[in-house]
Amino acid sequence: MKLISICPSNTELVVYLGLKDYLVALDDFSNWPDDLSHLPRLGSDLSINMNLLETYEPDLVLASLSVPGMEKNIQELKDRNIPHIVFNPQSFQDIAENLDTLGKATGKEKEAALAIENYLNFLDKYRAIAATIKQPKTVYFEWWPNPIFTPGQTNWLTELSQLAGAKNIFDDVELASVQTTWEDVHRRNPEHICLSWVGVKQSRMKRDHVLKRKDASDLQAVQNGHIHLLEESLFCRPSPRLLFGLQKLAYLLHPDSFSPPSANELS
Question: I need a surface site. Which of 66, 82, 234, 257 has the fewest CB within 10 A?
Answer without folding.
Answer: 257
